[in-house]
């Protein structure tokens, strides 16, 4: 039987890390390619009868509505991930996301089948939301539960970098399609479909990579003992509801700001209002994604050295400082201003995203950890990112300026920072099932820090 303090050997850790990055990148590529499509083409192809302004709001609303179904994916994946394993759920969510994305690539437009087109588009986006809701928790636990205690921050940053990598891949491919392969009208006619159709190739690769890795050692031990919780979601909300709320609010501070770019609002604003070339905007988004990627990796290392909580607070400070300068720079309608705004914002996003995986995993007990990680992430994505592009667009249309959007970014950031201050850093806490009592206590500043007292007492 495995020891609750055991970790995988380095070769296994490397395989798990590689599989996690590949799978998460593919999953979020699919999710973000839709958001870019919403900002660039779906208004004309699926919502044109509503008019440009209303059509753009409706297009962004389909991005947000899918978030409402992410908790369903999190509940399902959390329930079965705590019962049948992390790896099995990762494979299922990957297939679901890929199938929905590929079908969007062959979907007829409003001009071809009328009102059925936006309805089908929304249904496929909902399937993407269900998949995304279950994906993240499994990916996080696979790497964090395989990692040694002093490297969990770095390990946990690996599924996180799949998000900027997915956006980098999506924005880079869209830039290639608009600028080289299918410029102008050709992009509207057929070019936009290619990035969606490519998903089927990526899913095949991701499937075989994920099937090749071993199950998490923590879940393996739970399964060997027959200690799976019968109703993990019920137990989670009965005993740890306060942690669910605080963890979700931490993510609000990152997600609302992140979806200014990944949700398509800034791309639509820059190409529509400011008349910046679409390909140039997409290239700038790609560069910003690369910065976000690097900042996320750095944040993982910082999380292991100065703590998850401190790294988050530094990141939220950067986001708050950039809330107004972001649009001051972008509104210059120049490429240097656009690059500077996106790059500086991406640094804050990376610092508030990199430590999240390890911190979430250390907050919740082993028996309900999949549910505990997945559900706050899904709730935080609804409260933060779901309708961030729609809200930003509505504020822009109502006020005529981006000042209100900056206030929105600042308020979301302060919410995340406040929740961060309410949680304790849990570096070094054992993750195995032998330590449920330690894991279930002292995660907030409002409760006795029993776990760390016991850790400090150990030789």
Key terms:
globular; 459 residues; disordered N terminus; 77% helix; mainly alpha; single chain; Growth Hormone, Chain: A
Summarize the structure.
Keywords: Cell membrane, Membrane, Transmembrane, Transmembrane helix, Transport. By secondary structure, the chain is mainly alpha-helical. The chain has helices at residues 10-40, 42-46, 52-65, 70-81, 86-105, 110-113, 116-144, 152-181, 185-191, 193-197, 199-211, 217-225, 232-258, 265-272, 278-305, 308-322, 325-330, 335-353, 356-363, 369-386, 388-399, 403-422, 436-439, 450-457.
Structure description:
- By secondary structure, the chain is an all-alpha fold.
- The protein has a single domain, classed as Up-down Bundle (Growth Hormone, Chain: A).
- Helices cover 77% and strands 0% of the residues.
- The model is unreliable at 1-5 and 451-459 (pLDDT under 50).
Topology readout:
Elements: H1 10-40, H2 42-46, H3 52-65, H4 70-81, H5 86-105, H6 110-113, H7 116-144, H8 152-181, H9 185-191, H10 193-197, H11 199-211, H12 217-225, H13 232-258, H14 265-272, H15 278-305, H16 308-322, H17 325-330, H18 335-353, H19 356-363, H20 369-386, H21 388-399, H22 403-422, H23 436-439, H24 450-457
Subcellular location: Cell membrane
Keywords: Cell membrane, Membrane, Transmembrane, Transmembrane helix, Transport
Membrane topology: Multi-pass membrane protein
């Amino acid at each position: 039987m495995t020891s609750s303090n055991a970790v995988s050997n380095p070769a296994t850790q490397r395989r798990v890390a590689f599989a996690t990055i590949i799978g998460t990148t593919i999953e979020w590529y699919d999710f973000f390619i839709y958001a870019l499509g919403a900002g660039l083409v779906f208004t004309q192809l699926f919502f044109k009868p509503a008019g440009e302004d209303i059509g753009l709001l409706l297009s962004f609303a389909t991005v947000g509505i899918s978030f409402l179904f992410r908790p369903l994916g999190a509940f399902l994946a959390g329930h079965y991930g705590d019962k049948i394993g992390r790896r099995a759920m990762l494979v299922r969510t990957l297939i679901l996301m890929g199938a929905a994305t590929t079908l969007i690539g062959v979907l007829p437009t409003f001009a071809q089948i009328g009102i059925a087109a936006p309805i089908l588009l929304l249904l496929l986006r909902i399937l993407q939301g269900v998949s995304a809701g279950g994906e993240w928790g499994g990916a996080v636990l696979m790497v964090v539960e395989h990692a040694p205690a002093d490297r969990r921050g770095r390990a946990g940053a690996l599924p996180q970098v799949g998000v900027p990598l997915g956006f980098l891949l999506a924005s880079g491919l869209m830039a290639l399609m608009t600028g080289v392969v299918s410029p102008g009208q050709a992009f509207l006619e057929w070019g936009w479909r290619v990035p969606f159709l490519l998903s089927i190739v990526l899913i095949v690769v991701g499937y075989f990579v994920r099937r090749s890795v071993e199950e998490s050692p923590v879940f393996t031990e739970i399964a060997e003992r027959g200690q799976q919780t019968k109703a993990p979601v019920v137990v989670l909300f009965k005993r740890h509801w306060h942690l669910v709320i605080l963890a979700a609010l931490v993510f609000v501070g990152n997600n609302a700001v992140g979806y200014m770019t990944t949700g398509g609002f800034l791309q639509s604003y820059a190409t529509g209002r400011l008349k910046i070339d679409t390909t140039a905007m997409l290239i700038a988004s790609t560069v910003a994604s690369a910065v976000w990627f690097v900042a996320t990796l750095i944040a993982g290392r910082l999380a292991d050295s100065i703590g998850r909580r401190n790294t988050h607070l530094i990141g939220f400070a950067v986001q708050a400082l950039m809330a107004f300068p972001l649009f001051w720079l972008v509104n210059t309608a120049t490429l240097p201003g656009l690059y500077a705004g996106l790059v500086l914002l991406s640094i804050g996003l990376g610092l508030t995203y990199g430590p999240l995986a390890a911190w979430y995993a250390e907050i919740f007990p082993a028996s309900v950890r999949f549910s505990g990680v997945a559900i706050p992430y899904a709730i935080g994505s609804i409260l933060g990112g779901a309708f961030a592009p729609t809200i930003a667009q509505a504020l822009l249309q109502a006020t005529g300026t981006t000042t209100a959007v900056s206030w929105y970014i600042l308020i979301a950031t302060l919410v995340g920072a406040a929740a961060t201050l309410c949680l304790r850093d849990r570096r070094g806490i054992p993750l195995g099932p032998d330590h449920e009592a330690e894991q279930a206590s002292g995660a907030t500043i409002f409760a006795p820090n029993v776990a760390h007292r016991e850790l400090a007492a150990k030789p």
